[in-house]
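Chapter summary example.
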Amino acid sequence: MTAPQRPQQSQFLRRPSLKESKFLTEALRTETVGGLILLAAAVIALIFANSALSGTYEDIRNFTFGPSSLDLHLDLTHWAQDGLLTVFFFVVGVELKRELVDGELRDPRAAALPIIAAVCGMAAPAAVYVAVNAAGGGDLGGWAIPTATDIAFALAVLAVIGSHLPAALRAFLLTLAVVDDLFAILIIAVFFTASINLVALGFAIAGLALFWLLQRLNIRGWYVYVPLALVIWALMHASGVHATIAGVAMGLMLRVTTRPGEEVSPGERIEHQIRPLSAGLAVPVFAFFAAGVSVNADSMAGVFTDPEPLGVVLGLVIGKTVGITLGSRLAVRFTRAELNPALSWPDVFSVATLAGIGFTVSLLISELAFTDDAGLAEETKAAVLTGSLIAAVLACVMLKIRDNRYRVLAAEDERDEDRDGIPDMYQQEDPEYHLRMAVIYEEKAAEHRRRAEMRHPPGDPEDGRA
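The structure predicted for these 466 residues follows.
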């Protein structure tokens, strides 16, 4: 009788595929630059809000324009929040579709690991916030504020400290952020939609159906899709559902697989074009309008004494770290996965701490959670900035401690001794690879012998054969 086979082991924090690694490198390069611009925008906003220019800054934020008949007479803050962030969420939708179809989330067994980690990394901060506010008599409406991770800001921190995160950790961080964004979108759609205009929502869904049909008919041309996208966005905004949901929906509808004769899919091509706009303009402009909070002794004291902002800070710093680390351990324990032997649990803990940087979506949820209490919204936004800063500093310290080890792992990831443009680690299972490497080593040995003979020709007294 044949013995039953044990379930195949999977690896947690495994090295991404070559295709995934190339995409990851390009995406992180754009997001890192965008993150630095985002950081600069936030600093400028804080300077404006806490200087003699604070009145001018408020006038700019509150400047309104747009057609009232279409419910689009909005101030600049809401144009950035509802309009520009739609571009960001469109990119998130494309990323999520690519991950589900051709990325790390394609294999359900492998996808379970980052999904469990991300879910725990959102549930724990929410639980921390609720516990703090239940004990302190605070407003429980802000429970979702500390649940989000800002990938652009996290990557900006990595760029500043120069950490050579290996490909496996970078892929884990990016996948965590994508799953995190998905659940943040669901939270916004479900919990922050007060009333719905069914007529406008119906027309918006009809517009999305037309968008999907045009995609399937392989219709191309920005002059078709841009006007259609604007109409869908306006209808979604008028429906009462947060307008950014339109961006996610359209991103999810793009085709991310290639057909015969195509070098890249429409989704990849459009994402490549839109991502710089999202990372370099849309998100920084939103941050400029959202991050300008008043910072003084009283407001900072309130961050650590009032239950709402304190719950946000503890949720980001403690909840995120504990949630992602615990979720990862549970995933390894119950999915028969094994931790990548090149890494250790302190590495997971460091990345989990880095994920406590919640900026863009956390600021957005602060606005949505306390629309009727501007003072509390400002306090929780200050808490988001404070918690993100603390998480960034702690992550920097821990990542720097392991930086030398990361340099070795990153160098191994990038090693390409046969100089064919493909890192050697992806060719280890290729029989022809070993033949090519043998030839390279023989050529190096011959070159070494030739140089030795040039220094000490045969017959030279210093040559051992004389």
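To summarize the output: DSSP finds 17 helices and four strands in the chain.
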